[in-house]
Amino acid sequence: MRQWWKWLPGGLALMLLTIGGLAGGAWYFVETPLRPADNATVVFTVESGESLASVAGRLEKNGLIRWSESFRTYARLRKVPLQAGEFELSAAWSPRRILETLAFGQPMLHRLHFAEGLTMREVALAVNATGLTTAERFLAACNDRDFLRKNGIPAENAEGYLFPETYFFPRIPGQSPYPILKALLDRFKGTVRDLPQAGNPEELHAMVILASLVEKETAIPAERELVAGVYAKRLQLGMLLQCDPTIIYGLGEMFTGNLRRSHLQDAGNPYNTYVHPGLPPGPICSPGKAALMAAAGPAEHEFLYFVARPDGSHHFSRSLSEHNNAVIKYQRGGRPFPKSRGPES
């Protein structure tokens, strides 16, 4: 027997089937995929505030369902709200499965990952690569002092407070950077919540600055507290920190890969810790948890200097003469080096 109802307009067909009690026909629409053998998936986006009629129309236009009016009627009978976001759908799925995915399924997530030691601009490029927002929008949000203050960040920008981790985000309406920034700041706050500096904004900011120096100076876990201790000791004694990475940060795009004597003597660089005493004006990168822990509790020792060995580890020294000898041994190939540059030469 020919199924005459299949040839009626979608909305009228479903209405007649429902009113007439033809449960089998209604089941056919709800449970039968448009193309059962098509295993391909497409990314379907439901915009924030988009109407059911619009969604149903686009589902039919994209070849995912048979009748948009029938889908619209079915969705209204189910009384389920649709989520905004991106969803993977297939024409091999039934209208019931498609509706339930749009109503209850997990929207597609975009992965954001960045390692320890990146600057705010480098993090912005990582965010840009996700397609969720642009680097320019993210940087503008990072410089939004009102937003930072509302989120408990005691700084003029988010440098140092963008916690390095792997994150997953759904598509954000209007490409707003703020949900991404808030997630990074929340992860930072959760990491430092129990540290002694967390309750004092000035102490917290100083700790983050110190952690950023530690992060840039060594990647060896066992050395982080020692490096933090060297800088803490120098601060206590009123010595210059003489940290190369701070100069590099201050140079920005002008840094070509080699530090010159003129860079070490440049008082115009506020991040030049060979000239300016104390901590630099702000963090120089995003420190990870280990560097933050080290800066919160630096090792207590008598070391004032350190120099890199060929294997990437460091030799720590108590005196300038000992340090100069280590520099000659590890970096000068035995050639005399009459004047040390700083804690790491």
TrEMBL record:
Superkingdom per UniProt: Bacteria
Alphabetic keyword roster: Cell membrane, Cell wall biogenesis/degradation, Lyase, Membrane, Transmembrane, Transmembrane helix
Any single GO BP term: peptidoglycan biosynthetic process
Sites marked Important for catalytic activity: 217
Catalytic activity: a peptidoglycan chain = a peptidoglycan chain with N-acetyl-1,6-anhydromuramyl-[peptide] at the reducing end + a peptidoglycan chain with N-acetylglucosamine at the non-reducing end
InterPro entries: MLTG-like (IPR003770)
EC number: 4.2.2.29
Cellular compartments annotated: Cell membrane
Mode of membrane association: Single-pass membrane protein
UniProt xrefs under CDD domains: MltG_like
Main localization (coarse): membrane
Pfam families hit by this protein: YceG
Membrane-spanning intervals of the chain: 12-30
Record's function text: Functions as a peptidoglycan terminase that cleaves nascent peptidoglycan strands endolytically to terminate their elongation.
NCBIfam families: endolytic transglycosylase MltG
Protein family membership: Belongs to the transglycosylase MltG family.
Name of the protein in question: Endolytic murein transglycosylase
Source organism per UniProt: Desulfomicrobium orale DSM 12838
Gene it is expressed from: mltG
